[in-house]
Amino acid sequence: AALATGMAIAAECPLAPETVALLAPLPVTAACLLLRWQRPFWAQAIVACWVGLYAEARALIPPTLPAPLGAVVDHDTRAVVQGWVLTAPEAVTPREGSRLRVAIERVDARPAQATVALAVAAGVPTLLPGDAIEFRANLRSVRGLANPGLVDSAIQARAAGIDLFAGVGASENIHVLPGGLVGFRSRPATVVWRAAARVRLALGQAIDRIASPRAATFLHTAVLGERRTTDPTVEDGFRAAGATHVLSVSGLHLAAVGLVFFDGVRRLLVVVPRLPLWIDARATAAALAIPALAFYTLVTGAAVATVRSLLMMLFGLVGVAVGRRNTPLIAVAAAVLLLLAWSPLVITDISFQLSAVSVLALAVLVPRLLPSRGDPPTLSSLARAELRAPWLKTPLTWLGGLAAATVAAGVTTAPVVAHHFGEVTPAAPLGNLVLVPLVEMVVVPFGLLGATVGCLLGTTCSLPLLKVADTAARLALWAAEGFRNHAPVWLTREPSTFETVTSCLGLACLLACIRRPLAGGARPLLVLGGVFIGAALASGCGREVARRMNSNLIITFLDVGQGDAAVLQLPGGATMLIDGGGTYDGSFDPGARVVEPFLRRRGITHLEVVALSHPHPDHLGGLHRVVERFPVETLWTSGDDGHNPDYLRLMATARARGVSRPVPALWQRAGVSIAPLGPYVTDRGGGADEQATERIGVPEGATVNDASLVIRSSFGGRALLFTGDIEANGEGELSGREALGQDVRADILKVPHHGSRTSSTEELLDAVRPRLAIISLGWRNRFHFPRPEVVERYRRRGISLLRTDQNGAVTVTIQPDGRFDTTCERGCR
Asked: What angle, 0 to 180 degrees and rounded to 10, lies between the N-to-C axes of helices 350-369 and 328-342?
């Protein structure tokens, strides 16, 4: 716990390893004093916390790529890559290709060592681990999006052992080298991985031969861990039921498989005449279950949560094999310690956090919630613990134990779920009671056993087993659909790390004292739980008061890749969002991955105005998520649909949600003035004496970019200009507004059209005269924005230029007296 605490502190507040090393005398001195006072436990905890702090600080430093990889990545050139397949291709969707991992051996015929995540845009190549392949692609460094309060996805990729990213257009672009490369295929680990991949493919084919298409997809997910093929509506249903953990191969899956295998082997050994006189059936079954569970983990992809569960079960099974007892806390601690030693960055993995908290809750709290605690539970093996549990004697007591486990895990992990996803599922206890037994006790065992029998003995023998799994899968999907349609999902602001930790501890303390009398030790737990919960509530209320009492205008230009998204936090708590980012192929939703998490982490649950500059995917895509999940008062657009069906879908969602869609006009709130500056169309009255009036609209003949909605925000004598993607013609129209008495000057300019050569004209810069310009664009984007001549244009005028691809998200804070300062997630250089 102390080691993990140190790592969590370093992950939350990154420090240089040199700084941590300079602090080493402090923990050493404290440990020596504690040892002198005969407190060795606390001395060890302090030292372990410092070790965790230093290890995480070292792990957070991006690795330096050796030549020739460094030169290829830095110059963004295409290279011929040769290497070995590490994992079999995993389909994203039947149409959108697949992904696999490759161990690089050579780059442009020069030796190189790295692991690359290779994305195949179309098709699923027929490859197995150990196959030698060659492909031509641009190698890109692991670089995520940097936004305030959000975990950098690059850290999670590095935690999974990925050094580089690459992509090819189709599976035909990957060529298998018949002769292979020297040495890799013969490694024992490669042989095991190849066998696991073949087994996975054979099991999937056996399932597809019998199960119905929709149930087969679910069986692939639940039994084989192929999560990427899951229908989003199915995930929504399981999320509303609080049971998304059954969609991945986690501890419950391994427990079910281990229980069936262990008990089946034990019973077979017992019925063999005279054999129990020579061997211990339980110890032998445990010894055989160890490689079986390890191989099943490889078959399902060896995800972090699965490996954590496997390690815990291995400790228990080894204990049975050698006749020793283990406690749950020992197994949890040992598994967590091994994972953190393998990669300190695992501490930032969401599945790792959820699984660790839930398993701790099950190990510590469930015995306290059961009516008859009896002897403390052991983890000699999950099978042994389950079979000896007193609450399995009758169905009602079995359901009571399952309910206790559901409540313990669901309640303690709720703050973690709210922290990462901004939602709480109150139907989780009922959903787990319905779906967990159905999936873990029927779908997984019958599906796995039926697929195995189908591979070994044929379809006829496996038909009864897979039909049971198919029926149970369809029943689970039907129940999940019911939860999706009827179970509420409460959307909340995301608690801070401090609030999440204290909430988990407080809820655990309160659950622990449910079946304890006040005189029997519950009072200290009750007081401690109240203190933790009170601290979390006080922190949350304090953040909300600070947000509403804020007197500054805070503008955050989010890092959403190749797109635009800016959040304006007005004095008093009102919020405006301009654009939501997006991608042209829909492979990444910045609304779900960046915009919504940022808003909820800032405590924003309501938006006064959402503005769409123009209906191109890189500005519109992320707004679907925002309009669907946030109360929005007003939606501003220029009225141009851009012949984009997604724009019509956004308008339909806004109508269904009751969002007002007026013609954009001057809006003032808390001293902030927000005015649309174009595009304008002229409305001419019917009579000769009636004067023509102007309103926001799309001029005839204007392109989608030039019809972008331009917005000027002013506060404290400072102004910001949001220009969308206007180009030379639109910039000329905007600059001409100055002659009509409209103020277009701004201290801060959102650079038009991501710095393309058709924008940022001299005419615009002369009219706006900014001091600071901010470009929102993606790292090494395919358009090669910003263009060098545009950057030079800003440099010649002495305009400070910041870029979200290099500087990360840019935050500008304007005070009421006009002073403003700028901060960047990657430094404002």
From this structure: 170
pLDDT in tens, 771-814: 999 999 998 888 889 999 999 999 999 999 999 999 999 999 99
How many other C-beta atoms lie within 10 A of the C-beta of residue 572? 14
The owner of tokens 């990444």 is 588
Query: 681 in helix, strand or coil?
Result: strand
Is 444:518 a contact under the CB 8 Å cutoff?
Answer: no
Tokens of 645: 């069906």
SS (H, E, C) 179-200: CCCCCCCCCHHHHHHHHHHHHH
Residues whose CB is less than 8 angstroms from the CB of residue 269 and which lie 6 or more positions away in sequence, other chains included: 275, 276, 279, 281, 284, 285
Do residues 483 and 241 make contact, with C-beta atoms less than 8 angstroms apart? yes
Of the candidates 714, 711, 727, which has an alpha carbon nearest to the alpha carbon of residue 579? 711
Query: What is the C-alpha separation between 369 and 363, in angstroms, rounded?
Result: 11
Query: Which residues lie closer than 8 Å to 208 by C-beta, 6 or more apart?
Result: 216
The string of pLDDT tens digits covering residues 720-757 is 999 999 999 999 999 988 878 889 999 999 999 999 99
Burial of 67 (0-12, 13-18, 19+ CB in 10 A): exposed
Q: Which of the 8 DSSP states describes residue 627?
A: H
Contacting residues for 240 by C-beta, under 8 A, at least 6 apart: 425, 427, 431, 480, 483, 484, 487, 488, 489
Coil, helix or strand for 512? helix
- The residue assigned the tokens 């930032």 is 348
Q: Is the C-alpha dihedral spanning 550, 553, 558, 564 positive or negative?
A: positive
pTM for this model (two decimals): 0.87
Positive or negative, the Cα torsion across 123, 129, 131, 133? positive
